[in-house]
Amino acid sequence: MKNLLHVVGARPNFMKMAPVHAAISAETPFRQKIVHTGQHYDDRMSAVFFEQLDIPVPDINLEVGSGSHAVQTAAIMQGFEKVVLDESPDLVLVYGDVNSTVAAALVCSKLQVPVAHVEAGLRSRDRTMPEEINRLVTDQLSDYLFTPSQDGDDNLAQENIGPEKIFRVGNVMIDTLVRLLPRARQLDPLPDLAREAFGLVTLHRPANVDDPRMLTGILAALEEISRKIPLLFPVHPRTRTNMAAVESGRSDHRLHVVDPLGYLEFLSLQSRAALVITDSGGIQEETTYLGIPCLTLRENTERPVTLMEGTNVLVGSDPGRLIEEVTAILSRGSKPAGIPDLWDGRAARRIAAILAEKLS
Ligand code: UD1
Description:
about 50% helix
């Protein structure tokens, strides 16, 4: 009997693991355990996702909490090394590009335990982003690279990763969206606001929220935009802390700041929004699937398929450009867009089928 470990730690990991865990459980005889590193620990960043996505309670929680990148990565490695020695897994699955992903992959490579990377091959080519370093290193160390789109395969080939390790399976995050969209649509979160057209905002990248001048400029632009269309802004803890220092003090706007939302509440609002303004990775993909215009406050993206085929537009770090693009969407609507190949709700089943064949 093969033993598999899933390693997750931060909010965007949970919706990627949920369908993979379910598909492996339905379609293979393998035993599975879930390791939560504790990178995200607030209930609103973690526990609510396990409940809403029907993920079993983690078997092991490393409770590493916050810290600098080195402190956090090292704490995950120390804790996870003991887990791997105790459990002797036949395969470890890691997700996305967070510190938990690279830390687990490093531990496995030293102990010669095979690693499967779900959401492999994405590249922004911006090495100032910690996530890009995490993606590059994790892919070099992985034995199974499950990619969401053709650009992922091409990037891995350019980095001399053997074709026998690369499997294009589609987008597991979209599996979760497809499954839960009907349930999300039945919710009516924040009915007062959702009665009229509204925009949805998320921001947490260090480049946008750690520099007070940048954050002040973005918030001023959001306040101005909210005079045309009300904006709902569920705030990540990192951003909340930084916003306290730069409050504008003005009240003649309709920028509504709320605590982080659960998966279903956020998806419900996303599916009804007139537009989304974000610096997240996953939200660029979800808006593309939903056909909702997305303005991404970054100079680059590791998800170019959302620009070429989807509804995403990069607005960079210029608040003036953000205001112009919102005005254009409000007058002309979204650009023509479609759904990328294999973003069909079945990616995790493809992963389970591949693992069933390879590990038997
Ligand atoms: C992490 C990921 C990022 C992902 C994001 C989604 C890395 C390098 N970054 O960024 O790719 O898009 O998660 O949310 O792994 N905090 C809390 N409560 C929590 C978690 C965090 O208060 O439950 C605060 C802490 O002050 C912490 C800060 O947020 O220092 C940042 O958390 P951290 O996990 O280090 O990185 P994120 O910015 O969340």
